[in-house]
Amino acid sequence: MNRRGAICWALFGLGLAVWIAALGLQGWVSRTVLPPVLAETAREVRDRNGALLRAYPVADGIWRLDVASDQVDPTYLAMLLRYEDKRFYSHSGVDLRAMLRAGTQAVWRGEVVSGGSTLTMQVARLLENGGTGRWAGKLRQIRVALALEQRLSKAQILQLYLLHAPFGGNIEGVRAASYAWFGKAPRRLTPSQAALLVALPQSPETRRPDRARGVALAARNRVINRMAAAEVITAEQAKTALLEPVPNEIYPFPLEAPHLADLALAERPDQRQLDLTIDGGMQRRLAGLLRETVERHGANLSAALVLADHQSGEILASVGSPGYHDGGRRGYVDMTRAARSPGSTLKPLVYGLAFDQGMAHPETMIHDGPIDIDGYAPQNFDGRFRGDLRVRQALQLSLNTPVVSLLQDLGPARLMTAMRRSSARPVLPGGQPGLAVALGGVGVSLRDLVQIYALIAAGGQGIVLHHQQDQPPERSARILSEVAAWQLGDILRDLPPPPGAPARMLAYKTGTSYGHRDTWAIGWDGRYVIGVWLGRADGTPVPGAFGAELAAPLLFEAFGRMGVSFTPLPAAPSQTLVAATADLPLPLRRFSAAGESKGATGRIEPLQVVFPPDGAELVSSADALTLKLRGGEAPFVIMANDRPVRTGVRRRVLEVPSPGEGYSTFVVVDRNGQSDRVRVRIMPVQPLATRG
Questions:
Q1: DSSP labels for 173-188?
Q2: How far apart are CA 647 and CA 292, in angstroms?
Q3: Sequence-ordered alpha helix ranges (H) in 397-542
Q4: Contacting residues for 271 by C-beta, under 8 A, at least 6 apart
Q5: Whole-angstrom Cα Rg for the chain
Q6: 6-30 pLDDT per residue, tens
Q7: Whole-number Å distance between alpha carbons of 246 and 221
Q8: With bands split at pLDDT 50, 70 and 90, how would you rate the model's confidence at 686?
Q9: Residues designated catalytic
Q10: Taking the alpha carbons of 498, 501, 504, 505 in that order, is the dihedral positive or negative?
Q11: Is the pLDDT of residue 172 over 90?
Q12: For position 153, what pLDDT does the model report?
C-alpha cells in the first residue's frame, strides 16, 4: 500500500468513527441481516472415552470439525486473543483504538504494520466469505460485527472463529487444523504448536508449512516472540518453542475402526456424532497386530478380529481388515461381517447341546470310526480313526465323525435354532440344514461366531453384543445351560496353547474351512472373548493354512496386547456332575447313536418330545401337563427341572405333574440313554373380562 492509500485508510477510520456516532447506531445495527451462523461440520465417530475414531468431511470436501473453547488448549486461546484482539472482551465488535493505531502506523511508515480488524470482524468476514480490500466490504464487516456482538455472546463469537478460521487447503477450524498439522486434538498443544495455529489464519495459503516451510517458520516465530514480550509464555518456553520444527506435511485424519464407523453411520444416518463402545487404545494395538501378522504371510492375505466384553456385551475392538485402503488385500471389505465357512468352530455348540439333552457328558465314551449316513460319510482331517475315546478328547482333537453322530441324534435344526437364539444370522447355502453344518457347511460371520462364544463364556446366556454406546443392553435367549457352558470351557482350556503361550489361561477353539479358505481361532477368559479370522477376502484358498498354526498364535498374542491381565475362568457351577466315566449314570457312560440300536423292525427312530414343542408358551390351570413322545425305546424316565417325576413309563402319550407357572425344562431319557429336552413357559389362565 502506498502512502496515499495509507492516508486514505486513516481518514476513513476517523471519519467512520464520527459518522457512526452521529448515525442512529442502534437502528442501523439491529436492521442487519446476518449471514448463517450455523455451518455443517464433519460427522464424527468417537470411542468410549470421547476420542475421535473417524471423521467424514462435509459435502464440499472441507475438513471442519465441531469445536468448543473448552476443547482447546488454554495457551492457544491466550495467544490468539493477545495477538489478534487483546480487547476482545471489552469492545462491541469494532476496536476504534486499534483502527486508529493501524491508520497512524500506516501513515507514518507508508505501509500496513498492524491490522485493525477484531476477531468479531474476522468472524463476519469468514461467515460471508468476503474480502477486506474494498471500502464497501470493510463497512459491511463492521456492520455484521456490531450485529453479531448485539445478538451473540462473546463465547459464541469466539467459538465461531475457532470453527471457521482457515488453516490452509481444505482445513477449517482449529480442531481440524490440530489434527491436520500435528496429528492430535487441540486440547494439549505446545507453545510452538499454538503459535503456528495463531499465525496460519492471517495468510493460510502463503504460510502453509508443507509448501512454504520458511514462511511458516518466520510467522510462527513472530508470534512466539510477541507472546514472550507480552508475558503470555515465559522466556524459557519461548526459547524451547523457537527450536521446535514446524510440520512439513499434513497428517491423515484418524481412521480407527473404519468399517465399524461406516456401519454405525449407516445405522443412524441423521446423527452427527456417534459414540461407540470401542476402546481406542485396544483398537489401535490390535489393528497394528493384524498388520504385522499379514505382512509376514504374503501380499493377498487378509485378517479380521473382534474383541468383546462377554459380561457387558460391549465390542471393544473391531478390525475389519489389516488396511482399509489396501486394495491388494481388498481392505475395504469388512471381514468381521462377511459370511464364511466356520470350519470346526461350531463343534463346541454341538457338544454343549448334547450335554444339555442328556445325550453325553465330557467323560462319556464315544466311538470314532467310519460312518455312512444316507450317503454322507465324513472323514477326520488326517484320515485316521481313534476308536473309542471320551467326548472330552473327541472335542479337543476336533474329530469329525463323533460330532456328526451327535448331530444326527440332535437334529441339525436344533443346532440352527441355537445359533439363531444367540442372535447370530447363519446363512444356509441349500436352504435346509444337513449334518455337514457341524463341520462348517453353513455361512457364519466372525462377529456372529464371537456372539455365540460370548454367550458360552457368559454361562450360556448373556448380553447381545453391541457397538453403539447408548444402546440399551439386550439380554439374549439362553442357548446352553450354565453347566454345559462351563463344561465346554473346562474341555477347551486344556487344549495345548501355541509355543510360548501360557497354558490353561484361555478356553479356545480353532477351525479351518474346506480348501483352506478360512482359518479361525476364538477364545475367552473370565471377561473377554476374541475371535480372529485369516484368509483371502475373495475366497480363494490359502495353501497350507491351518487354524491351529496360523490363527491360534494370533489369538493368544491379541490377548497379550490388550493391555490388561487375564481374568480367571469361573469355577464349576454347584450342580455340575464331576465324575469319571465308570461313575456316570449308566445311560451316560457310552453314547450310542440312534442307528446303533436295532429293534425287530431294524433302525430305531431317535427319541423326540413332539408335544409340547421347545419354546412353547402353555396356558394351564390344571395340575398336570400332557407329553407326547416319538421314537426311542421304552421304558422312559421323565425329569422336570432336573428332578425325576415319572419312571418306568412305556406309554408315548402321558401326563406329568405341572411344575407351576414360569419356565420349566422337561427331559425324557429312554432305555438306551437317548434323550430329548424341551423348555416351555407355563402361564396362568387369564380371567374373562366382564362387560359393563
A1: SHHHHHHHHHSS-TTS
A2: 61
A3: 400-410, 412-421, 446-457, 482-492
A4: 43, 265
A5: 36
A6: 555 555 565 555 555 545 556 666 6
A7: 10
A8: low
A9: 84, 344
A10: negative
A11: yes
A12: 93
As a whole number of angstroms, the distance between CA 511 and CA 344 comes to: 5
Q: Count CB-CB contacts under 10 A for residue 575.
A: 9
- Per the model's pLDDT, the better-predicted residue between 629 and 74 turns out to be 74
Q: Which residues pair with 671 in a beta bridge?
A: none
pLDDT tens digits, one per residue of 220-242 = 999 999 999 999 999 999 999 99
Distance, in Å, from the CA atom of 562 to the CA atom of 556, rounded to the nearest integer, reads: 10
Cell readout for 337 is 461381517
Q: Are 591 and 405 in contact (CB under 8 A)?
A: yes
Report how far residue 592's alpha carbon sits from residue 391's, in angstroms, rounded to the nearest whole number: 12
Q: In which band, very low, low, confident or very high, does the pLDDT at 692 lie, cut at 50, 70 and 90?
A: very low
Nearest to 549, CA basis, from 519, 507, 582: 519
In this prediction the pTM is: 0.80
What whole-number distance in Å separates Cα of residue 18 and Cα of residue 96? Answer: 11
Return the amino acid letter for 24.
Answer: G
Between residues 510 and 102, the one the model is more confident about: 510
What pLDDT, in 10s, does the model give residues 388-407?
999 999 999 999 999 999 99
Q: What 3-state class would DSSP assign to 573?
A: coil
The enclosing H or E element of 260 equals helix 258-267
Give pLDDT tens digits for 315-337: 999 999 999 999 888 999 999 99
Angle between helices 347-356 and 400-410 (to 10 degrees): 50
The answer to whether the Cα torsion of 70, 72, 77, 80 is positive or negative is negative
Rounded Cα distance between 462 and 474, Å, is: 8
**Phi and psi for 456 in degrees, rounded to 5?**
-60, -45
Residues 6+ apart with CB under 8 A from 90: none
Which residue, 638, 659, 615, 310, is CA-closest to 485? 310
Provide the grid cell at 393: 478328547
> Angle at the Cα of 346 (from 536 to 546), degrees rounded to 5?
40
Between 623 and 72, name the one with better pLDDT.
Answer: 72
In this predicted structure, which of 346-355, 430-439, 530-539 has the lowest mean pLDDT? 430-439
Amino acid at position 67, single letter:
V
Q: What is the CB neighbour count within 10 angstroms for residue 202?
A: 16
Q: Does residue 486 have a pLDDT over 80?
A: yes
Give the integer Cα–Cα distance in Å for 568 and 524. 10
Beta bridge partners of 457: none
The secondary structure of residue 443, as a DSSP letter, is: B
Place of cell 485493525: 116
671 vs 249, 362, 476, 588, 674, CA distance in Å? 78, 20, 35, 11, 7
What's residue 107's pLDDT?
Answer: 47
> Among candidates 272, 206, 220, 207, which has minimal Cα distance to 55?
272
Enumerate the H helices of 296-362 as residue ranges. Answer: 347-356
Strand partners, 629: 609
Q: Tell me if 280 sits within 8 A of 49, measured CB to CB.
A: yes
**Which residues 6+ apart lie within 8 Å of 353 measured at CB?**
410, 414, 415, 418, 480, 484
Report the alpha-carbon distance of residue 289 to residue 654 in Å, rounded. Answer: 60
Helices 191-199, 213-229: axis angle to 10 degrees equals 110
Q: How high is the pLDDT of residue 299?
A: 77
Specify the DSSP element, H or E, that contains 150.
helix 135-151
- CA quadruple 463, 528, 520, 387: dihedral sign: negative
- β-strand 63-64 against 171-172: which pairing, if any? parallel
